[in-house]
Known about the structure:
five-stranded antiparallel β-sheet, Outer membrane efflux proteins (OEP), 12 helices, alpha+beta, two-stranded parallel sheet, elongated, 3 domains, about 70% helix
Amino acid sequence: MTVLTRGLIATLLIPAIAGAQQGPQVPSTLTVEQAVDLAQANNPQLRQSLNARRSAAAATRSAYGALLPNVSSSAGGVWREGRQQVFGGIGIGASANTLGSSASVNASLNYGLDAFLQPQAAKASERAVEAEADAATVQLRTTVTQQYLIALQAQARVILSDTLQESARLTVDLAKARSAVGTATILDVQRAEVALGQQRVQVVQARNTLAIEKLRLFENMGVIPPATDVALSSQFSVTPIAGTVGELVELAKKANPNVIARRDREDAAAVNQRIARTAYFPQLSLSAGYGGFTNSFTDGNFSVNQLLTSRQSGCFQRGSILQLVGQSFDPASCSAITLTPAEIAGARSSNDAFPFGLTRQPYSVNAQFSLPIFNGWQREQRMAEASVARDNARQAVRQQELAAQQAVRTAYLNLDAARQTVAIQDDNGKLAREALLLAETRYRVGQATFLDVANARADFSRAENDRITAVYDFHRAFAALEQAVGRRLR
């Protein structure tokens, strides 16, 4: 590989590696929908909650898999030294080293009424996990939306601080101009400069607050803050909520994921109670097995010698019998016995079974019914525990429904109060702005003092800050209502 080729590969790979290390890219202009999408894709806590769905799906597959037979297989090999073992004073085994192998396939199946109910319980639990994952998603969406609104509120206060700083700067210029013509004192100029300095401090603090709130937003999104500044572009309007509180409560009963999860947990508890009752019914167990083995001598001539010895020993035994009855016998005739080439080949062939020339063992099929009669009231204990678990699940559903209704009603009241507060603070802000303009105009023509302008500016700052707080309190209350209902409302 040439230096030019290596340089080209590095040029192509380094940006990709750097991009992978930096993580997901955040656009320079970020809407609240984009922030929520990035959070749902990258927030570590949400990803952990969503991973529970995979475990629940695997549990459901396992429950259905219990209806199928369990099949297992085994294979192995063994080497044994050529030495006899003594059992009860009798030597057993060959004097040659041996190799052996074995293989088997086994299947078993256990059937009871609980096996047919387990998939229902697992499926209900899986639905509950899905609903809990949806609840975590809704919670994250609310958290990100709330933090986005907090950052927007800090951004609005930065704009207000900049406006007040510009107003203070113009007041300083006006005080200097009036001091030059003798219509104001040097004390007015100094007071105006102090007010400008104080406003500059507020601008610095407001910008710092905005930067910190953006960092918190990126943390909730699960992304690394970009090097460049990100503008928040979403605009929220203060509009009354569509629908009555009763309609929203009914919608929460159907859409709130926490309520749905509790109902699914109750369904699973009901099935588990039925499973506990199946302990009074019989169980059917089926099993079957099939296998084989090999046993070969490492010395290929051992089987030939063993066959020849067997032939000759038979001859010697017949000779011994002939001698016992008084007939003649020539031992040399037995020693002269040999094997034919076909017999030698057959003996060697029978010794070449290792490892796949298996000798089949008898297969078996077993069936068994078992009916429990008494096990020390353990079944009764499980029945009681299952009944308590179902009742607890039923009460948890009721508790969650009450909590959802309370959350909807509370959020609805907070939202209505926030809407009215926004309207009042808008009027206050307009009046404070008009008062500030009037004070600045009167100060410009010499009909008001600097103190009048400072007081009017302070009143305008408070009124505008209160208006900003009221506006974003409304939007946060709206987000809380959406979380209580379990779905978007705008």
